[in-house]
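Helix-turn-helix transcriptional regulator: structure, please.
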Amino acid sequence: MTLRSYGVRVHSTPPFNAPAARRLREALGMAPGHVAYGLQAQYGLRIGPETVVAWERGLRAPESRELTALAGVLWCSPGELLGIPHSLREHRIARAMGADELARRVGMDSSTYRRMEDAGRWRGNERQTAALAEALSLTPRELLTATGRGQELTELLRSAATTRWRAYVRPLAKMLPLPRRRLEDVLQRLHSDYHARMAATSSWGASAGSGQSGRDFLDRIEEHFWALVSG
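Here you go.
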């Protein structure tokens, strides 16, 4: 996630796990002053003990550079100091990976990758998307959230269920690193389930709620999709 202030792009801090920071410090037998000294001596960061305490109480959160340095002082990975990451940037930081390294691993120009990360919108091709998921160890669902394409998935699934499902296999394959055959099976099942519900509407003796059943299915189609993918 990014913010804009007076026309300047400002990155929000990653989700910081304050209790973990305190627990790791105490396990090493260190006081906040020792952490502050290590941050300055090892990383050149002028951060006082009061700031370390504020981090541990959840009153403030370290910025990206501070988080990496704090992990170094506490002898842990940055991921151990984070809550559940959501954005690409948060997943990347959790794995102590630089933007240039990640861009190289997905086969993309660094500046192109940085623009996507800043915007929170992934535009890589199918091969790059699969490489991204592998590099960051993302599940398909985590990948979808990190690339900011949840709404796009919902729209594609609704179209696949109500029209010609085969036309949506390729667009979905570009979004999610799933086997084509698996995607085909899932989309065909969604299409069949939706039309079975709608067919009930026109059958003799159909209940008044049959049409609503079809609409409810579309409203929850992403939930149905993930259930079929994991089933």
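Notes: The two ends are 32 Å apart (CA to CA).
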